[in-house]
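Ticket 4471: requesting a sanity check on a complex prediction with S-adenosylmethionine. Repro inputs:
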Amino acid sequence: MFFHFKEYIKHLTNSCNKHGVHSPFVYDFITKCLYKKASKEDVSFFEKYRFNLKTSSKVVCIEEYGAGSRVFKSNIRKVSQIVEVAGIKRKYGLLLMRMMSYFEVKTCLEIGTSLGLATLCLQAKEPKMLLTTLEGCKNTLEVAKEQFDRFGLKNIKVVLGDFKVTLPKAVKNNNYDVVYFDGNHTKTATLGYFKECLKAKHNNSIFIFDDIHWSQGMCEAWDEIKKHPEVTVTIDIFQWGIVFFRKEQRKEHFTIRL
Ligand SMILES: C[S@@+](CC[C@H](N)C(=O)[O-])C[C@H]1O[C@@H](n2cnc3c(N)ncnc32)[C@H](O)[C@@H]1O
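Returned structure tokens:
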């Protein structure tokens, strides 16, 4: 926790807003998407989905994967608590929605479904988008699938299993406009998933990494990703690291205060 706080203070010191940005592509993205106000319709859609989970009396037995939880001590958890702890926060959920429509995303991969809150945000604005989401815990995924049905979310391909097995299959012979990395926040796993997903990127693909300042290991993973020769523009908004591969851009890093 203290590490995270220290990182946040560093971020506040090092970050700038749109005025420090000269690249037109990045400037437009910041002003027309990152800083754009969320619509009431998006807020209400997000809140309805979350409300359903927050007021659920269901309890699920979790199969623990990844870096584990700093909050939960037991594997028997209330759905209402899982959504609070592991689900995407409103500010970032709404930003995901804006990004999907700003970039007119047609194909997307989510690594880490949990209860499907971010899945909803990825698909809400682009209902025809082909979205694949990967999750290891069967019981959590069951709740997510019930939610997708209730909210009429179609075109979501849900894949159950360890990322070690499911990710190589998901990238094989596939191309994604967006990959959202939100599972197993360890350095080794994150770099492994990043390298695997490079096989499915194209010039305009965008990779979004959640929790890049969660731990020393995640900060190191983010530093390596930024340096990767195929990566051009990177944007650190503290909660996420956003990665672009556009060859027409020069390699440049931005730290932006949201
Ligand atoms: C932070 S949660 C995802 C939250 C979700 N994207 C959201 O915002 O609502 C991460 C999920 O990844 C899953 N996960 C972590 N490591 C995994 C692995 N190695 N294989 C399969 N699933 C994994 C966990 O079970 C957990 O549900």
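Notes from triage: The longest helix spans residues 40-54. Leaving this open until the requester confirms.
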